[in-house]
Amino acid sequence: MAEISSSGYKDYLAGLFAGVAAVATGHPFDTVKVMLQKHNAEAHMIQYRNGMECTARILQTEGIKGLYRGATSSFIGMAVEGSLFFGIYSQIKLHLQGGVQSGEPRPQVIIPSAACSGAINSFVLGPTELIKCRMQIQGTDSLVPISSRYSSPLDCALKTVKIEGVKGIFRGGYSTLLRESIGNAVFFSVYEYVRYHMHSNIKVDSSNYSNLVDIGIGIVTGGLGGVAFWLTVLPLDVAKTLIQTNPDKNCPRNPFRVLHSIYKRAGVKGCYTGLGPTIGRAIPANAATIVAWELALKMLGIKRG
Q1: Quick check: pTM over 0.70?
Q2: Where are the Solcar repeats (predicted)?
């Protein structure tokens, strides 16, 4: 079902709530994913057997706060990214429909809307993820020397710029752009089509039950969309993590070259390093994102069929 009404700034405000919900729910899974990608996909590093061992080690050495390492930059980044992404997606979608609301989803509308908004947001998401990833891999474990650790996200950003220049903060930008444009085209295709067909086949008379059904459908569509996103673009995310966390500022920046190196060393499994915690994160984080977005739209008076 399509939007019945839309208001510019409200689309962006609803997206902000969605971004915050995503970080609050999914950041611990993301920390484990980044640790696995850094220390399992890269050659000659200490490896974790699986996500559970990685989680246990973080909890043992740092407690719960270790799983939220780097969350400050994520909350800021995802709040801005969520606001821009959902706002731009809604506005481009409406424009491509000629300002006319359409009931059934159309790929010629959904795919360019999602891909364009994802590409634009990659310029915000890239620097915040670089800071997040560098904060996540340091921890209190012995994998990163104390002299090389950052005291805060701001310290990380300042040191990165000092050592690598302004362009250093955008390291991994090409990988982020590819991941976000391709991944979000897949995400919204799955979300819009599943949502449309679920609403078409579920009829509820009571308004109370209708709200519960909307939340339930949001959980299902967000979760499925998130799984589809990561199954499609996780290799690009693995390459991005290695590019952004490599201490050598002259390291290769081409994600396909990095993936080729990983494939030669560890095969397809290496390119999907961190799949377990990534899928574990995708379902609750994306479900929370979609539910928060749709509830915010409803509270702001933007109705969806």
Answers
A1: yes
A2: 6-95, 105-197, 213-299
| 254-266 burial code (b ≥16 CB/10 A, e <16) | ebeebbebbeeee
**Ramachandran assignment for 63, one of left (phi > 0), alpha (psi -120 to 50 degrees), beta (any other):** left
pLDDT value of residue 16: 87
How crowded is the C-beta side of 291, counted as CA atoms within 13 Å? 20
Q: And the tokens for 168?
A: 């250093």
Q: Which of 142, 119, 144 is nearest to 134 (CA)?
A: 144
What are the pLDDT digits (tens) for 209-255? Answer: 677 888 999 999 999 999 999 999 999 999 999 999 888 888 899 99
In whole angstroms, what is the distance from residue 281 CA to residue 139 CA? Answer: 20
- Determine contact, residues 245/185, Cβ cutoff 8 Å: no
Q: How many CA atoms lie within 13 A of 82 on its CB side?
A: 27
Which token pair is 191?
Answer: 């979300």
Domains of the chain: 8-299 (1.50.40.10)
Residue in 36, 189, 174, 35 with CA at minimum distance from that of residue 111: 189
- 153: tokens are 């996200």
The secondary structure element, H or E, covering residue 2 is none
